[in-house]
Amino acid sequence: MVLQIAGGGGPATPAGRALELDGVAVFTLDPAGLVTSWSVTAARLFGHAAEEVVGQDIGAVLADADQRGLVDQALAQIAHGRVWSATLDVPATGGSPVAMHCEPLAGPGTGALVITRRTAPPAGNDLLSEAAARIGTTLDLTKTAREVAEVAVPAFAEAAAIFVSERLLAADELGSHQAGRAAVVRRLAACLAGQPQDVTDSLLRPGEVLVFAGDSPSFRAMTAGRPVPFASLDRESAERIARRPGGREFTATYTSFLAVPLVARGTVLGCATFARAYGSPGFGPADIAVAGELAARAAVCIDNARLYHRERRTAGALQRGLLPAEPRVPDGMAVARRYLPVGASVVGGDWHDIVPLPGGRAALIVGDAMGHGPEAAAVMVQLRTAAHMLADLELPPAELLRRLDAMAAAMPAAPFATCIAAVVDPSASSCVVATAGHLPPVLALADGVSQVLDLPPGLPLGLGAGSYESTQIRLPPGATFALYTDGLVESRSRSLDDGLAALCGTLSAALAEPGVTLDSSCETVTQKLCQSGEDDITLLLARIRE
Fold first, then answer.
1. Looking at 278-416, which runs of residues are DSSP E strands?
2. Which residues of the chain are under the pLDDT cut of 70?
3. 19-to-22, 114, 314 alpha-carbon distances in Å
């Protein structure tokens, strides 16, 4: 018999709701476990007429004397208003398993409504076919582990839990497990037959990190690399579960366990633990073989999800390092910025930076390394870091570009990049600008007129030109200073001149909106000028506060 206990039984179900369906048998019990009604389908399923069983003890009708204690446990749960589910090998049906569901008739202490049906475990090939169809539908590690557990329960076992080595998940450390030691694992998912997920998670918490002792069956399975059947939980696991509500009843339910290592690509990832309860046959050689096949298929899917999870973590860490940090803007200035990488990339060749300087000044830098994706990003981060350090030394823009050019020329394959650097001084209402092959800045005046500034263009970084020229620009009250990359103004369908004209017009219109902020203007301009996504886009707007 398979005992499942779900707390807080729902509202009463009157006997009149019993459905006489083909293959389903219904009967009722009084609080003492005596049969009070016996349907025609029950007589057909169990081979006993109603007059033979009404008033008889249900344990004597369906089971043998050895299982009377389990029947008493089930009746006790019903008496407390809980639902009880079981799979019982019934002698009267020739030993074929019968699935049984019991719930209180009208509340605690009123007896039980019992719904039964004949069932049979699927053949091994059927289980493996279902596993192939259901496991690995996503690359989410937790969902994949849950799929494994749900395939196994209740088709193969009444309980299943999936564990993966913590060192693989946290540090991606590979290695063999040594006999006599211990293994730190994380429970990814668990499933219990007949139990809602919240009840299962309260007993077998997903994400819980625990230790398999060196003498535990699960650790021995991981060490030996083969399934290990056992009759009861190890003491540490049993005590841990017993401390939780319903834990002692849970640990007393199961009588046969099987720990199966999860091995993929020659690495032991962890193990899967299966359990069967009273009345279900113990795990035999055929079951162990099926479990091994199931675990082998599951391990590959879990490892795929683990590797994907690792790559996402790595990519996330790199992206956080490559993307610019939140800038520290001097009190006398307002700055807004937008960056849109091309395609599915998170970072590319564009960069921008804001470096606060003494006296309320700030260095504004925008650059564009040739190319897209990780190669351009690798060049970009080196140039951005070097430019930030040079700006922090309070170098004039022309000298900053000269040193940055020398560094780029010395890099492997001498990358090609453009850059513009400006130092804004709010106290003098001016800025000093130098460019290295970059598009000139745009100045949007408070009266609504925007113009592209005419500056010495300079040569791109990486050519070793060594000569750049600075220009001082006056920033009138309310004027907005715009730095950008070519992705904002140029594409295959729009010439550079048309793009620059569009930038001037769109910027003037966005800034003229009543009550508009510099940040919302930056967003408006970026979205309106973003066309086909052929190149990274960067826009940096700066204004001296009045």
1. 333-340, 350-356, 362-369
2. 1-23, 63-70, 86-97, 118-124, 171-180, 279, 314-325, 342-347, 372-374, 413-414, 531-534
3. 9, 11, 56
**What distance in Å separates the CA atoms of residue 202 and residue 164, rounded to the nearest whole number?**
19
CB atoms near residue 178 (< 10 Å): 10
Single-letter amino acid, residue 8? G
Mapped onto helix, strand or coil, the DSSP state of residue 104 is strand
Residue 375 CB burial class (10 angstroms; 0-12, 13-18, ≥19): middle
CA–CA dist 41, 46 (Å, integer): 9
For tokens 């293994």, the residue is: 183
Q: Judging by beta carbons within 10 Å of its beta carbon (0-12, 13-18, 19+), is residue 33 exposed, middle or buried? A: buried
Residues in a beta bridge with 104: 112
Helices 285-322 and 141-152, axial angle in degrees (round to 10): 170
Task: Give the contacts of 347 (CB within 8 A, at least 6 positions apart).
Answer: 319, 322, 323, 341, 377, 380
| HSE, side-chain direction, 13 A CA sphere, residue 452 | 17
Identity (one letter) of the amino acid at 209?
Answer: V
Angle at the Cα of 30 from the Cα atoms of 25 and 31, rounded to 5 degrees: 125
Angle at 519 between CA 516 and CA 521, to 5 degrees: 55
Question: Residue 404's CB: how many other CB atoms inside 10 A?
Answer: 26
Here the tokens at position 235 are: 């003491």
Domains of the chain (ranges plus CATH)? 4-118 (3.30.450.20), 124-314 (3.30.450.40), 325-544 (3.60.40.10)
- Structure-block tokens of residue 112: 């039980």
Enter the DSSP assignment of 108. Answer: T
**CB count in 10 Å sphere of residue 345:** 15
What are 385-425's pLDDT values in tens digits?
899 999 999 999 999 999 999 998 888 766 788 999 999 99
Between the alpha carbon of residue 397 and those of residues 335, 409, 530, 538, the distances in Å are 19, 18, 29, 20
Side-chain-side CA neighbours of 139 within 13 Å: the count stands at 9
Three-class secondary structure assignment of 123-151 = CHHHHHHHHHHHCCCCCCHHHHHHHHHHH
pLDDT in tens, 237-249: 888 888 988 888 8
Per the listing, tokens 């707390």 go with 7
